[in-house]
Amino acid sequence: MAIGVFDGVHLGHQQVIRQTLADARQHEGVPVVITFDRHPNAVVAPDRVPPMLYSLPQKLRAIASLGVANTLLIRFDRAFSEQTGEQFIRGLARDFGHLHSVCVGSEFTFGYKRSGNVALLKQLGAELKFTVHGLATLALDGEPVRSTRIREAVRAGDLDAASQMLGREYAIAGTVVRGDQLGRQLGFPTANLDVSGLILPPNGVYAVHARVAGREHRGALNLGFRPTLASPTPRLQCEVHLLDFAEDIYGAELELNFVARLRDEQKFPDVEALQAQIIRDLAAARSLTWQTPCAASVRRSQ
Fold first, then answer.
1. What is the value of pTM for the model shown?
2. What is the pLDDT of residue 248?
3. Alpha-carbon distance 102 to 31, whole Å?
């Protein structure tokens, strides 16, 4: 089994999971990935919760895409957080009957007050007869691949670097929620995504590919505070206009891949100027998404 938070399921996580799959094939066992429904800090250190790279459904899809048929999703609550590392592993050994191998990153810690680590796993492995793989951190361009490094790349708008470290095209996903209908009033209805808790690229307008209900669409994403449309309580908006689309998708999950950054967020002198710019943005998005069906990076259009 592989154990980890696995935010982003990046290249380093993938080597841990693939070691589990290889062990299972070699010993005719059942590979299992164990992960958690939230970042542990959400319970043990709420003031230090990092913004996540992936929503939970995204993470589970990424794990499954590696060929994992069995994922155990643990609810990380206060009671669970109070288990020691030893109690956690002994509980897994009891519940699974027998563990053949446990695969983690070499710096992985777990259990109450981080009482569990690779050394503890090896100690328990000797007693309970399982092998331990504490895999060294993977490096890319001479630097370790970590979720923290990928978050920094996303925050800086370097989505090409983020995609390289993820091992797949960077994307965000969220549930479509009801907004204030201002886009519709302007003549450009948008799907508003709930992306609370996620790290996001810099504010601006992007050409995107969108997936919803198993279908792909092209669109333009506005990420920002809509400075032209005055609001007494401005809040970050993640809203996408899907081209040639007019269906009700409230409550559905929408995933966005970034094709190109069209422009920065800006304040226009009036609504008419904003509408004119939106028309130009949509034309640019239409052209770029046709040209780039599977773009792997964001570039500024000329």
1. 0.90
2. 92
3. 10
Instruction: Tell me if 157 is assigned to some domain.
Output: no
CA separation for the pair 76, 40 (Å, rounded)? 7
Alpha-carbon distance 27 to 33, whole Å? Answer: 17
Q: Which of 243, 225, 224 is nearest to 282 (CA)?
A: 243
Domain at 226, CATH number: 2.40.30.30
Nearest to 213 by CA among 259, 257, 243, 251: 251
Gap between the Cα atoms of 219 and 256, Å rounded: 9
Residue 269 carries which side chain, given as an amino acid letter? P
Domain that holds residue 187: 170-300
Ordered alpha helix ranges (H), the chain: 11-27, 41-44, 56-65, 78-81, 85-96, 118-128, 147-156, 159-166, 182-186, 271-291
Q: How many percent of the chain have pLDDT more than 90?
A: 86
Average of per-residue pLDDT across 62-74? 97
Contacts of 227-230 with CB under 8 Å at 24 or more apart are 227/265, 227/266, 227/267, 228/267, 228/268, 228/270, 228/271, 228/273, 228/274, 229/182, 229/271, 229/274
Classify strands 33-36 and 71-74 as parallel, antiparallel or unpaired. Answer: parallel
Look up residue 55 and give its two tokens: 């929503």
Note whether residue 153 is domain-resident: no
Q: Which two tokens stand for residue 205?
A: 């307008």
